Structures are given as C-alpha cells and as structure tokens.
Amino acid sequence: MGTVVVDPFYEALPAHLGLSFQELLALKHPSNWLEFERGSLSQTELLSNFFAAESGRKLEDPAAMVAAYTDAFEFIAGMEALLSELVQQGHRLWVLSNYPTWYQIARQKLKLDRFFAKYVVSCDIGWRKPAPQAFQAVLESADCLAGQCLFIDDRQVNIEAAQQLGFQTILFHNAADLRARLHSIKGNYSA
Question: pTM of this prediction?
C-alpha cells in the first residue's frame, strides 16, 4: 500500500479513534491485524477484538471505523500519473502487498485494474513479505524469474528479502524519486 495508495493505518485510523499512532500501537491487539492481513482472521473477528484485552477498550462503532479507514484510500501524490505512463510504455505491473481484504475496496475506489495485471496479497496467499513464500507467489503468478522483475517497496526489510531472491529493487520514498530512479536504472524504464 505504501508505494501506490496512502495506507490509512498510519494517520486516518488513529485520527478516527482519537489516538496518536503510538497510542494505537500500544492499545491494539498485538497480533490480530497481522492475522487479518494473512487472511486467518475475519473482519468480524478483527473488529470484535481490535484492542488488546488489557487495554480495556472496545470499538464503539466498528462500521464507522471501517468506513473511515476505507474512505481514506487515495493515491500517493504523483503515483497515478506515473502508473499511467508505465502502462502506456508497455510495462506489466503487479501488486505484491501485505494487506487485508480491504485492498479490494481500494482497488475498486481508485480503479487500480487499469494499471495492474494481477494482485498477490497476503490475505489471499497467507504469507506476508518478507517471507520468501510471498515473493514466490508473485513469481508464479507472473510466470517469470526474479531477475526479470523490478520490486519496489517502502520497507527496507522487504527490499533486502527481495534482493536475496534475485530481484532488482528500488526503495520507495515518493513518486518523484521513483521516477528519477526508473530513468537511471538498466532496463530503460523511461517514465
């Protein structure tokens, strides 16, 4: 999410709950969000146990929280234009994301299918980056070798895992930096 779409987990969700991000991290259940992202916990289970038991908190309005979260989906500045250019130039784009089923809402809201050939998402495959199985799932789906792929991610741990498997990589900072990096790397990404 953090390379194409603004991830509401960091700002919109804490703001909706009236918490800082650090307070949210301290109060939320320690593993439910990760299990939700892996597809091993349903939305109902997540929402009923969103906060850690010892926090003494419960979600007052789970539906409002989901709405606030998913309403916040928007493109990272500059990414919609960059994706359009890459697709026009004939590049095949794939999503490999650690995300719950809510990615489908972002996909529909932002019309992501105009850019991406396929989505390989942790909630569907049961693995989260940086696990090698997550990367293997995208390679199988794309029917290609790691060395033929350019992996772009906003987390260094995921970049390092991809590099160990033979992917070309770019650590994402923002759209302008990515555009410049694409200009400079071998493979002639011209956007």
Answer: 0.91
